[in-house]
Amino acid sequence: MAFNQELEAITQAFSGHGVDEKSLVTILGKWDPQERESFRKNTPHSFIEDHERHFQRCDDHYVRLLKHEFVRFKNAVVLWTMHPWERDARLVKEALKKGPSAYGVLVEVACTRSSEELLGARKAYHSLFDHSIEEDVASHIHGIERKLLVALVSAYRYEGSKVKDDTAKSEAKILSNAIKNVHKKPINEDDEVIRILATRSKLHLQAVYKHYKEISGKNLDEDLDDLRFKETVQCLCTPQIYFSKVLNAALRIDVDKNTKKSLTRVIVTRADIDIKDIKAEYHNLYEVSLPQKVEEVARGNYKDFLLNLIARG
Amino acid sequence: KNFVGWGADGKAIISILGHRNATQRTQIREAYHNLFQEDLIKRLESELSGDFERAMYRWIWEPAEREALLANLALKSADKNYQVIVEISCVLSPEELFVVRRAYHNRYKRSLEEDVAANTTGHLGRARLVSSFRYGGSEINAKLAESEADALHEAIKNKNKGNGEIIRILTTRSKTQLVATFNRYRDDHGIAITKKLSDEGSDEFHKAANLAISCINDHKKYYEKVLRNAMESVGTDEEALTRVIVTRAEKDLKEIKEVYYKRNNVHLEHAVAKETSGDYKKFLLTLMGKED
């Protein structure tokens, strides 16, 4: 390989989710000092030329980036080998620590897991953190999202097939009225909306979703402006669409740290559940296959690991 | 298991079912179904009547199914007896409460919290109570107890605006932590929190909060009071009497009896024998351990 090609390969090895360990080993491993200096000089956003002292020093961002990208595979492995209950408990704890921008994870865990899985997560949380999920959610969150989020993590929804269609119809109407009156009473303060979303079974809510469309012509989540409420409905009623959207947002080269993390989270947590359906929905929405997109954007062991998980089911 | 032709012999029913534990009662129900192709419970319902029937109907179930049944009956009742909901949520251990919630799913094809939430207007406090899965450890965070005792004090003063904080603390903290908080409240503010709450108001919310606190703090003392009130009232409150004796018979009725004796200087059995009669009386006494 000519040096320019090698340079390109190394640049590629570092740009994406994870790192291409093979290229780093074979190419970097054989470069002599001049080639490495050339690499530094040719990568100005990772190495800053100190003209006064005649050397190239690492950019702080580059150092941080490397740390995150090298560890991405390790984090995926750790998350994958963990018991699903511990996994979810830790995801919740981390989200609480991160703050409001991460609260979508709380909605995701509370609404896309089965009732028994969520119960398991609550048990694991007791064991790991000596508190209940709901007590930490209630005491850490002070904003308007508190009511909804506490109610969601506390749910133990009925999972059978019985649904009372007239109740679903009347609750669709309640939601429709609440949404129309949102200027008078914000949706986070509407106990009826929270009651319906946080206590009804998923099948029931899917019936509500259907009736809402018939009443108003729009999808319930589209008509909800509050992000958490929107996510709640998506997770409960159309989880594969929700996950596809999260994946799509994560599968970009230049994306923030937290969004990048959702790639690992979604694939690891859904690999045994509904990754096949998510793949199909992803293809439906974005006209490109999920494995193909991962191939484009991820690197090395991390990429291979994800592709393996995606291939299940 | 030898039921053939016993008809409605109350004494026999009491002596058999009254002395069996939950597993045995379930086995008896199964055996009865295999022998007679009918549900023993339906048979009891048609053969027995009144307080005796109601008591026997509640007794025959396994504990979790029983609590689910009582919760459902409470929600359907005209006077919306929320006392039962609060009792179930606060007296049972977190694990026991979950078993009840599962039993509720199986029997009613809905979740307990969805029925509680749909049946109560206004605050979702009771729904939060039944949804709780409290941490069960014995650790106490003294600093937290102090700050939350203060928070409760402020919240009670704030009237309706403070209800959210009261609900948060009462429905999410572990029981050990809460007991420490209630003690701290009394130490810091010179009055028991239950007294403060009842001074501030006697609406649904204050009553429910007081109930929850009493159950969490000392449920045996709470049950003693329920029993005492049930028998002191003009015309005994059989519903309450049955509920306490039937639900606690397999748990800590013995200790509740001791609390009752200490408080009233009269044995619970004597009080019950005075206020009740017939098969109902005999059945209650059997559950309390007194042989006929």
UniProtKB/TrEMBL annotation, chain A:
The keyword Metal-binding applies. Keywords: Annexin, Calcium, Calcium/phospholipid-binding, Metal-binding, Repeat. InterPro entries: Annexin, Annexin_repeat, Annexin_sf. PROSITE patterns: ANNEXIN_2 (PS51897). SUPFAM superfamilies: Annexin. GO terms for biological process: response to cold; response to heat; response to salt stress; response to water deprivation. GO terms for cellular component: cytoplasm; plasma membrane. GO terms for molecular function: calcium ion binding; calcium-dependent phospholipid binding; phosphatidylserine binding. This is Annexin D4. It comes from Cajanus cajan (Pigeon pea). The lineage of its organism: Eukaryota, Viridiplantae, Streptophyta, Embryophyta, Tracheophyta.
From TrEMBL, chain B:
It comes from the Eukaryota. Coiled coil: none annotated. The keyword Hydrolase applies. GO terms for biological process: response to cold; response to heat; response to salt stress; response to water deprivation. Keywords: Annexin, Calcium, Calcium/phospholipid-binding, Hydrolase, Metal-binding, Repeat. Pfam families: Annexin (PF00191). The keyword Acyltransferase does not apply. Ca(2+) binds at F3, G5, G7, E47, G235, A273, E275, T276. One of its GO terms (cellular component) is plasma membrane. GO terms for molecular function: calcium ion binding; calcium-dependent phospholipid binding; hydrolase activity; phosphatidylserine binding. A pair of annexin repeats may form one binding site for calcium and phospholipid. Belongs to the annexin family. This is Annexin.
